[in-house]
Write a structure and sequence with these properties.
The chain is α+β, with helices and mostly antiparallel strands. The chain contains four helices and four strands, in the order E-H-E-H-E-E-H-H.
Length: about 90
C-alpha cells in the first residue's frame, strides 16, 4: 500500500514546485491542495502544521514533514524512503 502524501501549495511558489518535483522524481503520487488566496484552507493547513503558515507544508500518512527544505533534508538523510514505503 502506498503512503498517503499530501502537500499544501501556492501555484506560483518556487519552493512548492521544487518539493513537488522531488516527489514526482521518486514516482510518488500525492494529493495537492492549492490554497492560493484561500484563508480558510490556509488556517486548516496551519492547524495541521503546528502553526506553520508558509507553503509548502507536506504530510505523509498524516505525519507533518514540514516544507521544501525539510523534505529535501529528509531525503538526503535517508529518512524519506521508509516513510514513502508505508
Amino acid at each position: 500500500m502506498a503512503a498517503n502524501v499530501e502537500i499544501y501549495t501556492w501555484s506560483s511558489c518556487p519552493f512548492c514546485i521544487r518539493a513537488k518535483a522531488l516527489l514526482k522524481k521518486k514516482g510518488v503520487e500525492f494529493t495537492e491542495y492549492c490554497i492560493d488566496g484561500d484563508e480558510e484552507a490556509r488556517a486548516k493547513m496551519s492547524d495541521r502544521a503546528n502553526g506553520r503558515t508558509s507553503v509548502p507544508q507536506i504530510f505523509i500518512n498524516d505525519q507533518h514533514i514540514g516544507g521544501c527544505d525539510d523534505i529535501y533534508a529528509l531525503d538526503r538523510s535517508g529518512g524519506l524512503a521508509p516513510l514513502l514505503q508505508n
